[in-house]
Design a protein that fits this description.
The protein is mainly α. The chain has 2 domains: 106 residues, Serine Threonine Protein Phosphatase 5, Tetratricopeptide repeat, CATH 1.25.40.10; 60 residues, no CATH class. It has 9 helices and no strands. Helix 7 runs antiparallel to helix 8.
């Protein structure tokens, strides 16, 4: 089985995603022109709207297209849960995260980190700390481990400050 045109353009878009947005967007638009139901391309377009344009409604729409096209594409759930958190749609984010854990290939460390974000937003630092520790257990690269350790320290410090304020 060979790569489709949409796959080829998607790979081009992904390879320049953070470094050359003009080339990335051109390739991404070609990918979606070849196949509007290409889940990876829809997911990447959702990330563009989420991370660069800050249009969370459009990001959510593209993530929806990605899930409709391929409900088992794991990257969509990781990004989609973040945009839902940023939009304040915590209930939907929680349901999406819970469902995502059942998918093969999903990055469990990221999903546990998303749970930690939700707990922190809800004012539950102890649960956030526990979720970050679980994320650490599921992280398999030093970059993630460093990030989660910094998050853990930050949330612990925040929890102590909250405790002092209550006294």
């Amino acid at each position: 089985m060979s790569l489709t045109s949409a796959d080829t353009y998607y790979v081009k878009a992904l390879s320049t995603f953070r470094y050359d947005m003009e080339s990335s967007m051109e390739a991404l638009n070609y990918a979606l022109g070849c196949d509007p139901d290409h889940a990876p391309s829809n997911c990447l377009m959702g990330r563009v709207y989420m991370e660069y344009i800050k249009n969370y409604d459009m990001a959510e729409e593209y993530f929806g297209y990605a899930i409709a096209s391929d409900p088992k594409y794991p990257d969509t759930y990781e990004a989609f849960s973040q945009v839902l958190i940023w939009k304040g749609d915590i209930r939907h984010a929680q349901r999406l995260i819970n469902f995502s854990f059942k998918l093969p290939g999903v990055d469990k460390a990221i999903l546990h980190a998303r749970r930690a974000q939700i707990y922190e937003i809800q004012g539950q630092p102890k649960l956030a700390i526990k979720a970050i520790k679980t994320a650490l257990e599921h992280s398999y690269n030093s970059g993630y481990q460093w990030h989660f350790e910094m998050e853990l320290a930050r949330v612990k410090k925040k929890a102590k400050q909250m405790k002092k304020r209550k006294k």
